[in-house]
Amino acid sequence: MNLVETTALLGSALAVVTDLKMRKVPNWLTLPLMALGLFLAALYGGWSGFLISLACAVGALGLFSLPFGLGWLGGGDVKLLSALGALFGWPGLLWLTLYSALAGGVLAFILVIYRLMRARALWGQLRLWGTSLILWFSQRRTGGQPVPLLPLLPVTKSVLREKYPYALSFAVGALLTICFP
Asked: What are phi and psi of 125, to 5 degrees?
């Protein structure tokens, strides 16, 4: 493992710890990580490496400003992804984004199941979905009144509104980017 990969993993691990503890990824971590990524790109790739790394960092910052603006991601998450983009460059940023999205989907599913189990609402929600699926299929055959396909219990709605630690997805994405470039 080279210095860039080690830096990405250590920075991601620190981000996971702070995100899990404080629910934020602080600037004291993301900004030096981005600067180090740009420095290492210049060190190993000269001006062209620096410019590619800078383009990846700015591109990630610009691309993920939309989810930030919609409230889907926090500012620290966007800066962490930008810093990792500076470290991985291109096409590493592409793989990082894809792996992070896949990891985020799996981890979000696990987290929702865990939170529903903690709230003792998982089985009630599954029973509600099962009943609504049966009613949905039966009303389609008989032409009866429309039934919502997957209604949510009030507790499930509150669980889905809880924050998700995206740094964990980015750390898994970074690890997968290193293992499967």
From this structure: -65, -40
